[in-house]
Design a protein that fits this description.
Shape: elongated
Low-confidence stretches: 7-44, 48-63, 284-290
Radius of gyration: 22 Å
Strand content: under 5%
Distance between the termini: 59 Å
Structural class: mainly alpha
Largest sheet: 2 strands, antiparallel
Number of strands: 2
Mean pLDDT: 80
Length: 290
Amino acid sequence: MRDAIQNQSSDDRALMRGSRMRGCRDLARTLLVAACCLCVVPAAAQVVDANGGRNTGDPSTRRLSIQVVPGITSPRQLEDETLQRARTALAQGGPISFTHLRALADRRDGFAAYRLAEFLMSQDNPALAADAALYFSIAAGTGRGGAMGGMIKAIDLIDPETASPARLQVLLDMLLTYAQAGNSQAVTAALRYHLTGAPFGPLEEHVDMLVSAAGPSSSAPVALQMATAILQAERPTRGELQRARDFLMIAKDAETLSTALTATNLLSQVEVALIKAPRFTFMDFEVALQ
């Protein structure tokens, strides 16, 4: 990949040394609009089982091809002749400048976006992680295989204190779109981000969807993980205990004996705690008055 990106101008090299690439702010705004139209309503994504039609009913066993936007797939879709030649060179494995690669990626060429994201990650510069994640998200949106895994790796390197909220929202929308479609990588990553609270903050409103999207073979251990996280609080509220109980009711029916036994034991403890927990707190009283 390093050898393929040739003829960089001095401006390009200076750009790579910086923590942000020019044009990413505009791209983030563009993608945010697209995300509002396409990612917030995941049904807009086209999901194809890539296992030759052999669907077991368990999303975790499927190879999914997910497409949110069509994207550029051929030089004929480009009006600029220079970019047409660059796209042809890219497809044939020939040399392509950083400027042309970025221009193609900005036009939602999934292949170019994926290659650009890989190049950014290869720089071993955490300051470029948000840019790489954004381009991986473009590639993922066009259904490029492996892009979601790359996006998750890049997200793990993002500093939430300095990352753009708009960009984080774009990444979260794409992650949730893949998760709801049954992509196991996206489900696992989203639950992990929820439990750690970084970089997106708590994802409580999406937890039920994520547990369901995990599929029959994975929903029980995922539910147990969520219940355990809730019960680790020093003093869980009655609502949190009820939430944990709901998850444990799923986990106790696990196929694996260890998961089922752990869930059953915790469930009995939660039931006792619910009996002792106050049914109406001062906070509940304040909410009722609103």
